[in-house]
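RETRY 2/3 - previous attempt timed out on the joint model. Re-submitting the same 572-residue input unchanged.
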Amino acid sequence: MLELKELCKTFHPGTVNAKTALNHLSLTLEDGDFVTVIGGNGAGKSTLLNAIAGVFPVDSGSIVLDGEDMTDLPEHKRAALLGRVFQDPQMGTAPTMQIDENLALAARRGQRRGLKWGVTRAEREKYRTLLADLGLGLEDRMSTKVGLLSGGQRQALTLLMATLKKPKLLLLDEHTAALDPKTAMKVLETSQRIVERDGLTTLMITHNMKDAIAYGNRLIMMDAGTVVLDVKGEEKQQLTVPDLIRRFSAASGKDEANDKLLLS
Amino acid sequence: MGFFGSLINALPGAVTQGLLWGVMAIGVYITFRILDVADLTVDGSLATGGACCVMLIRSGVNPWLALLCAFAVGMLAGLCTGMLHTRCGIPAILSGILTQLALYSVNLRIMQGKANQPVGVDKYPLLVSQRFVREMGLRNPILLAAILLVILIGFLYWFFGTERGCSLRATGANPNMARAQGINTRSNTVLGLMLSNGLVAASGALLAQYQGSSDVNMGRGAIVIGLAAVIIGEVLFSKVFRNFALKLTAVVIGAVLYYIVLQIVLQLGLNTNDLKLLTAVIVAVFLAIPYWKDKVFRKKQGGGKTHA
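RETRY 2/3 succeeded.
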């Protein structure tokens, strides 16, 4: 279970560029919740995920995951409980290292890294099966440097890495936004398959309202650093895009729905 | 004796110097290529290694032990730079410059206020010495240097294959990804800097023994020589040598070639005073080549991207 209480974060406080990215945001996720997050540019979606991951400290509020207060933990310690996939395909992998080496790094998330071999023969076999499941032919290229892979292949690999050790919370930050539509679809479907198979608690940011409705069991909409709409279960299944736009306008007090929201 | 005669005569010396600098160049490879940090500490820590080793040998310590101490002191220098960088938020380059500057005073202290201290091969059982460079036999410094390098490369090949070593490589390759996979990038950066400067100091210790003295200025421009070795190795062998151990070997060969070329241009009549200028220009050009290549490549590919 993830409990966020009264999270606040202001970037560049006290300057003309001061930007309140999180404004007393509170949110509770039950185990197994697959939550899609939508909202306009600058609504604080990515800030929320980065705050949970510990990329920067929050100004106030608390972050409790699975009973552990993570608010003051550094990023690399929180990583033990988290799986993350980023918007930029370059972000999630080490380009100069091989596919199997990247997976092996992920397999040791949250463990002490000692002087045992970095990749063992037994785990290579395991990775071969897992890579074959992705259906991208990567299982035959395990000693290829990740830098030579396409964006879609990298995102699929990052997804596999994020879920290799079952995380308490999976954070997907618009992880298909940089991909072409066909590849995006494939990565999204793979994400759903893994999330359902392992029953992962997931927060997924998307710009695509249709995806936000189609995936997950719960949808939240953010505006000005806080949650303005929270729809789950039956109600979510019956949502339509026009519904969502109407409710966004009502909730945010803005007449025109954000261009970005409409476009996708 | 003609040009080639004197060149062949000078070759063993150049090869030995290249091999001993190879230890240093491997240290530079660890920071520059693996950690992706340009560490300028090395200009100071090379001399620190030399100073430490010479003073210890002069006071009767076994040369092997003195070499080990030099390695340890070099690690301390790396620790200092690492702490300035990761705990005080000072950019890596500046952290290195600060440590390097501080080491100048430290080195003078170690050498009891003198700018150089001799250590004679007649009085002390030195590991390597210039005197035996053309001698066939066990005392020849090329033999020992080669053995040490094989052991060193073997050790590093093992270490960078371990879980910890892999995490260090990931730290340099993509720190964001490393942290997301639970790797403490700060402590890894410090570890890498320590390992690198330990090797640089050990190289300084061997060089000081080889030339029979330590000098407070012996590290001046060391980073550039190290980079030259790394780059020459990469330019010549990057297509052939893909294995990590071979890449390190390429760095050592790079250092050896650097000293052989140096010997040639000196014999062609280059003024010794112009050496550093020449080295800097060569390194600058080779560092710029990938950038230029990229630019030309992009122009040919897109052409219309200049407005962005």
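Chain A touches chain B at residues 53, 74-77, 79-80, 82, 84, 86, 90-97, 101, 104-106, 108-111, 113-119, 161 (CB under 8 Å). Closing ticket.
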